[in-house]
Design brief:
The protein is built from no helices and four strands. With 86 residues, the protein is an all-beta fold. It has strands spanning 11-14, 25-31, 45-51, 63-70. It has one domain (6-70). A four-stranded antiparallel beta sheet has the order 1-3-4-2, with no helix packed on it. The chain is 0% helix and 30% strand. The protein is elongated and about 40 Å long.
């Protein structure tokens, strides 16, 4: 198992502007790759994901990467609502 610790966090790719959000949620998901968009199958919508550093060791097992998301019951201060409205 390859776990990237706090000293090796990767680049965060935001799928939408979350600068006005009071917070976003994060979950660690298994990935077979170090980079690229990750899906989120939970309740809500993904707003960002992590690309691991290119020097992350190859392990033969899954990588663990973060997905950032909002749920329908989170406060929404940005222009887009998790409920589909504006």
């Amino acid at each position: 198992m390859s776990m990237v610790g706090p000293d090796k966090w990767g680049e965060i790719v935001w799928l939408e502007d979350v600068s006005k959000q009071p917070y976003v949620r994060a979950i660690m998901v298994e990935s077979r790759t170090r980079r690229g968009r990750l899906g989120y199958g939970g309740n809500g919508r993904a707003v960002g994901y992590e690309n691991l550093p290119t020097d992350t060791p190859l392990t033969g097992g899954p990588y663990f990467r973060r997905v950032f998301y909002l749920t329908p019951w989170d406060p929404v201060w940005a222009t887009r609502s998790p409920h589909g409205g504006s």
